[in-house]
Specification:
The protein has helices spanning 32-43, 57-68, 100-105, 126-138, 218-234, 244-253, 276-288, and strands at residues 4-8, 47-52, 73-78, 115-119, 122-123, 144-151, 162-169, 175-187, 190-193, 201-202, 207-215, 257-262, 268-269. By secondary structure, it is α/β, with parallel strands linked by helices. The protein has one domain (4-151, 207-288): Spore Coat Polysaccharide Biosynthesis Protein SpsA, Chain A. The chain starts with a strand and ends in a 10-residue tail after the last helix.
Length: 298
């Protein structure tokens, strides 16, 4: 069975100010998602699942169905506040989604085998998808997942601070945990974290998570049980979120293994509107180098 690509596209970007998931960056109107799907297809993925809000469904389908028809199977699932809450009475004024792990849980019915999870608005690169496909096809197990690791230096923005999940590795080189560090920026030859945590500076080569995960279907049952506990403990907190790293940390504590799969790919993304021209220029450079055609879906 070919692996499935699950794309997290339900969130709205507060710092960006608009729906960047469907913004055009490629020369023929391609979104960043188009390049991820293109890379996934040539790496051997057989299906793409978009996790979106129901209100955006028509817009998403109008963009992607004409492009992907006959190329890869598609499915659309909706992250709604009451999904998998089993009748739990959360605050009536809550509008914020429950976070990335809950979003993935919403894709349960659309995924039948090993799968990768990515953000809609991050460019991950061809090698990253090839490495993920190898892991999913050969090494993924109920007790062994993976994360694609990037070097911190290549994930910073020149236009403001960023938040990054900093990976801690164990003696075997597997993931020991992820610490969310915020207000990260480069100042000279140093990377500074202005979040009050230690260490305040990080090496440029620090491995960070860009939310590219590889999971077995066992992830769904495990996550559903954790989400139930999360609601009981944090469901009344207005902005509480159930993130994938929370599930990963608990999985590791209970004996699971998460491999850190390094990639030669260069990541880039759009945290701020000012990042957009550089993203477009980076894609043009890759096209000039022959990595992508000028029109992906011609």
């Amino acid at each position: 069975m070919k692996p499935t690509l699950v794309i997290l596209a339900a969130g709205m970007a507060s710092r960006y100010g608009s729906m960047k998931q469907v913004q055009s960056f490629g020369p023929s109107g391609e979104t960043i998602m188009d390049y991820s799907i293109y890379d996934a297809i040539r790496a051997g993925f057989g299906k793409v699942v978009f996790i979106i809000r129901g209100a955006f469904a028509d817009q998403f389908k109008a963009i992607f169905e004409p492009r992907l028809a006959g190329r890869i199977e598609t499915s659309y699932v909706y992250q709604e506040l009451d999904s998998f809450t089993e009748g739990y009475q959360f605050p009536a004024d809550r509008t914020k989604p429950w976070g990335t792990a809950h979003a993935v849980l919403c894709a349960n019915a659309a995924v039948n085998g090993p799968f990768a999870v990515i953000n809609a608005d991050d460019f991950y690169g061809r090698d990253a998808f090839e490495q993920a496909a190898v892991f999913l096809n050969k090494h993924c197990q109920d007790d062994q997942y993976a994360i694609i690791g990037y070097e911190l230096e290549g994930t910073l923005s020149a236009h403001g601070t960023v938040n990054r999940g900093v990976c801690t590795l164990d003696a075997a080189g597997n993931l020991a945990g992820i610490t969310e560090r915020i207000k990260i920026s480069q100042k000279g030859d140093e990377v500074i974290c202005e979040d009050g945590l230690l260490p305040q500076t990080l090496p440029l080569s620090t491995a960070v998570s860009m939310n590219f995960w590889c999971f077995a279907p066992s992830f769904f049952k495990y996550t559903k049980e954790m989400f139930s506990t999360f609601l009981q403990e944090h469901g009344q907190v207005p902005k509480s979120e159930f993130f994938i790293p929370l599930v990963a940390d608990q999985f590791i504590k209970e004996g699971g293994v998460i491999k850190v799969v390094s990639t030669r790919s260069h990541w880039f993304g759009v945290t701020y509107k000012e990042d957009a021209p550089q993203v477009a220029a980076s894609l043009q450079q890759l096209i000039a180098e022959g990595v992508y055609p000028a029109t992906l879906w011609s």
